[in-house]
């Protein structure tokens, strides 16, 4: 039999909407080839247990074979146990025909430890169970009902005007940002924003010595060189910018809550970095990493408010709502807007217009404020549970960065971080080491302390597993720890 490939589209009324793709190839009669193709589809898992197959007549018509050919193939597979046939239920893939699940893949270097549950204390991810489904759905209905027809056509590369207008008001009210909708460009998140700014600004970027390697990689992939700035309890030591010659073209900071060490940028340093940008003609890029979540202090306003022409402000809903909503924003100096829009492209291709409209409605209606306040309370309780557990089991542990954000840093004695991470892997606990965030070129920077530590995220675990994750964390900590402040 000559090789052929057939896609069969079954009649919706007869097959309840089921579509079926089969490859008919190889020797033998039509019945043998069809039987073999169906058996392979079930055996490989492409047809899942319980899947209803098309009726004889529909599949026969699509494949251009006799109805009896399909009936005989089905009957043979029913006899072999791959399919089941019941009056009124049609022909379905047998439940016991599911292929065996592959063994779980283990990370390279992770200790094998069967039968232990995965406990997740990785930073940077919000509680997925807390997404405001009902509120988001209600906002989506209102937004789509009111949306103009052009919302469903080619998108403006700046993003939907409704969301830019909503963000201009929200960011002014909550973060002290000074802007207008025309200076806001929507993007798919902070990473996308950095890619665009790397394309536009290029050159040399100063970055915090401790920060996301992913962000440094984005800048370097865009052709920018990254120069580390020391970090202490007052944030980035921006005075070091003056020591670089030639001057960097831009500096990337997390001033509201330094990531990952946790402190806000000191007021005198906020002023100093803006003065540097004015004198050197540089750009300050302010990553508002998790500025919505603060617990023990007043909100820290945006550095952008000190000079909107020298500071670009980046934000997203990745921490406040969900990273699956690919919506972020750049509040740009006026002279960068057209260049960034040109780098982005002529049409919006990164962020769904319908989700932008929904977020605009979510913000304007006040639902976003209510959600953030609710999550702030939840994360504060989790933060308090973390500190209480450490006070009980590791009272001398030095903990930093807990006044805001979604994580804390546990400082360890020098040389113990790697051992703690190995112990965590053995406990089935996912947690990260502080040294993984250090810039490779940061060794020898003036004022840099040797720091071993664990970066502990407390937002992600479900409530039912959070206590167990904290207990596992305490078991992996060294018996001697730096004295808590």
Task: Provide key terms for this protein.
globular, 7-stranded mixed beta sheet, 36% helix, 4-stranded antiparallel beta sheet, 485 residues, disordered N terminus, single chain, alpha/beta, 14 helices
Number of strands: 19
The dominant shape is globular
Rg to the nearest angstrom? 28 Å
Specify the helix fraction band.
Answer: 25-40%
What does the model show?
The protein is α/β, with parallel strands linked by helices and 485 residues long. Helices cover 36% and strands 16% of the residues. The protein has 14 helices and 19 strands. The chain has helices at 12-15, 30-43, 56-63, 67-80, 133-146, 161-175, 190-201, 213-221, 267-280, 337-344, 353-364, 367-393, 417-426, 463-476; strands at 4-9, 19-24, 83-86, 90-93, 119-120, 184-187, 204-208, 225-229, 231-232, 235-236, 250-253, 283-287, 311-316, 328-331, 398-400, 407-412, 429-430, 432-433, 452-457. A 7-stranded mixed beta sheet has the order 6-14-13-12-11-7-8, sandwiched between helices. The protein has a 4-stranded antiparallel beta sheet with strand order 15-16-19-18, covered by helices on one side. Strands 1-2 form a two-stranded antiparallel ribbon. β3 and β4 form a beta hairpin. The termini are far apart. The model is unreliable at 1-17 and 97-117 (pLDDT under 50).
């Amino acid at each position: 039999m000559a090789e052929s490939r057939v896609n069969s589209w079954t009649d919706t009324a007869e097959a309840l909407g089921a579509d079926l793709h089969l490859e008919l190839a190889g020797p033998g009669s039509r019945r043998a080839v069809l039987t073999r193709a169906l058996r392979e589809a079930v055996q490989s898992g492409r047809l899942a247990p319980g899947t209803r197959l098309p009726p004889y007549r529909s599949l026969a018509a699509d494949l251009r074979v006799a109805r009896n050919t399909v009936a005989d193939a089905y009957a043979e597979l029913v006899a072999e146990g791959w399919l089941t046939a019941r009056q009124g239920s049609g022909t379905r893939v047998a439940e016991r025909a599911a292929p065996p699940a592959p063994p779980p893949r283990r990370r390279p270097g992770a200790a094998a430890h069967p039968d232990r549950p995965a406990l997740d204390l990785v930073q940077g991810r919000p509680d997925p169970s807390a997404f405001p489904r009902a509120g988001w759905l209600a906002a989506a209905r209102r937004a789509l009902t009111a949306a103009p027809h052009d919302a469903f056509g080619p998108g403006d590369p700046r993003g939907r005007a409704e969301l830019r207008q909503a963000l201009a008001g929200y960011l002014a009210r909550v973060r002290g940002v000074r802007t207008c909708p025309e200076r806001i460009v929507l993007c798919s998140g902070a990473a996308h924003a950095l890619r665009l700014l790397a394309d536009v600004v290029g050159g040399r970027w100063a970055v915090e010595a401790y920060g996301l390697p992913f962000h440094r990689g984005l800048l370097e992939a865009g052709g920018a060189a990254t120069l580390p700035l020391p970090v202490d309890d007052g944030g980035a030591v921006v005075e070091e910018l003056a020591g670089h010659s030639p001057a960097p073209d831009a500096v990337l900071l997390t001033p509201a809550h330094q990531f990952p060490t946790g402190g806000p940028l000191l007021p005198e340093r906020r002023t100093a970095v803006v003065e540097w940008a004015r004198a050197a003609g540089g750009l300050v890029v302010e990553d508002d990493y998790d500025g919505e979540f603060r617990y023990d202090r007043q909100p820290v306003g945006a550095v952008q408010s000190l000079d909107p022409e020298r500071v670009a402000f980046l934000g997203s809903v990745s921490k406040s709502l969900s990273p699956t909503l690919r919506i972020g924003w750049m509040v740009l100096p006026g002279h960068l807007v057209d260049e960034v829009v040109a780098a982005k492209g002529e049409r919006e291709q990164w962020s769904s217009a319908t989700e932008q409209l929904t977020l605009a409605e979510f913000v304007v209606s006040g639902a976003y404020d209510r959600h953030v306040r609710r999550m702030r309370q939840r994360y504060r309780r989790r933060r308090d549970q973390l500190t209480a557990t450490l006070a009980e089991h590791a009272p001398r542990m030095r903990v930093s960065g807990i006044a805001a954000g979604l994580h804390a840093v546990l400082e360890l004695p020098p040389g113990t971080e790697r051992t703690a991470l190995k112990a965590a892997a053995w406990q089935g606990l996912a947690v990260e080491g502080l040294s993984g965030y250090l810039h490779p070129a940061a060794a020898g920077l003036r004022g840099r302390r040797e720091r071993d530590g664990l970066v502990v995220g407390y937002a992600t675990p479900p409530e039912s597993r959070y206590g167990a994750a904290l207990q596992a964390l305490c078991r992996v900590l060294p018996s001697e720890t730096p004295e808590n402040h």
